[in-house]
Structure prediction request, 636 residues.
Amino acid sequence: MKKVYAGIDLGGSYIKAGLLTAGGKRVSSFKILSEAGSGPKTVAKNLLLAAEKLVFLAGKNKTKLCGFGVGSPGTIRYPDGIVTGSSPNIPGWVGTNIGGLFGSRGLEVKVDNDANCMALGEYLFGAGRGTKSGFYLTIGTGIGCAFINNGRLMRGSNYAAGEFGHIVLKYNGKRCKCGRRGCVEAYTAVPALIHSTKNILKKYDKSPLKKNLNDLAPMTIFEAFKKGDKAATEAISLNAKMLGTAIGSVVNLLNPEIVVIGGGLAQAGKKYIDKIRKIIFEFAFDSAAENLRIISAQLGNNAGWIGAACMNFDKNSG
Amino acid sequence: MKKVYAGIDLGGSYIKAGLLTAGGKRVSSFKILSEAGSGPKTVAKNLLLAAEKLVFLAGKNKTKLCGFGVGSPGTIRYPDGIVTGSSPNIPGWVGTNIGGLFGSRGLEVKVDNDANCMALGEYLFGAGRGTKSGFYLTIGTGIGCAFINNGRLMRGSNYAAGEFGHIVLKYNGKRCKCGRRGCVEAYTAVPALIHSTKNILKKYDKSPLKKNLNDLAPMTIFEAFKKGDKAATEAISLNAKMLGTAIGSVVNLLNPEIVVIGGGLAQAGKKYIDKIRKIIFEFAFDSAAENLRIISAQLGNNAGWIGAACMNFDKNSG
Prediction:
């Protein structure tokens, strides 16, 4: 009987889940609503629904289910899955015992932070294949990050590593949602891009972006950028410059082999990644950047559940 | 016969060296001039002089010398000791093959970056005893840094990790000696402290620090700070705020168990470390700072050679 591993990626909107072989083949996948707005009990119920569906699918596919992995927002005690720190997209989630939840149904599970799972997925079956160390970023409304060193996730002494969004980019700068001043996230995540595009548009009377100013979507900005719109180009270039400086700083500090950029912002496309790459190489020391590669994430929305499933592979179970 | 390990710490002014037991007992130590201004051949000659003296001392002490370790400025390929990247304090040092140099005398050696050696020394026999992960800083004219994760130095994919001095603190800020803008070092190392003290003194006509303005030494500023001088206090407080913000950023990124602060600036004393600690805890997330300790380095000028010697302990030889 073929072995499969179950992965679940819990997000503020959806729970994505699937079955994976040890070779990285996706046997089955689906998504259901997480209903985060209905409170943590509903989210927990939906997590277990996803788990039951995975058990059912494993049976239907005549495969042997060899373990569950869950990626969750927040600071997550690995591998037992106590949510110990803030997770703004799922109100009331802190304090949840995800491992206990699965245990109550007789299911064994390993739980980690969602950004760690995404990085593990990309590392094993996506952009990071064949590397030993990498800095993995997911940039959307917020910024997720994980660092793989010598083939191992660096979770930090309290499982709280990875807040790249809240390292300082501009001392005494703009107030961030988190309350600090000058954080990377305040300047480079999607809300900051929308804000700066609106500001820049004040100079450009004829930009088609002005038509829908109150409802400016990131994809609209990306499309305009791809068509060469001046305002969009200026906004994206500024974003790339600030993000590239922050990533270049991390390269100077940690000297990874690769930087992998994923999440909503990566949809701005190759020209955007090229701009970031240029700035990273300007800011990074020659010795740190000598063999550095800057690449787009490859697994898209599947990275999270794929990485979660991989936690049960023997070599990643430590 | 008692086993000893030889450590050599190469600096811009001095070569410090000594013999260490596996239990961390210092059997013997000395320093000689490195004569960096006389070129790399002279420095190499002095390194070998120190090595010969260590061999002699090991014999004199009736001990068995079990290996040499060298800490050198610059990017150092570990363990063979090719100097692959910039080392401004020893002109012409890039390209030197330190391992080959020792090999030519029949001596086996392990070579690493000097900040890595200091961190290893503090980790095993100083401020880091009993911990698993730590962020180690040495702040003087420049800034040295190393990160220990799960008991292992993180050297980076090209041995170029550790440029905490050149992560951005203020986007588009002050020009740094390295050519970048807004680096931590440009705002927080000793030259920046002297510069900002001079600026601040413009407001304080009566400060005794004004007497020697052209020759303002860091120790003079520290003494004035300890006596409550207002200008010195303002300069040190600003330094602590900027440095604390940068360290707090790294805590958010890497979530270490301890931050160890050493080097010339640490001589500003406990009140200075207290100020830095306060800012770090303000900037770090609760989850990342929960069990964090901020402590002064304990081995002073000996950390480098002690750590270099430790590279030959079996458990640190990987």
Chain B touches chain A through 53 residues (CB under 8 Å).
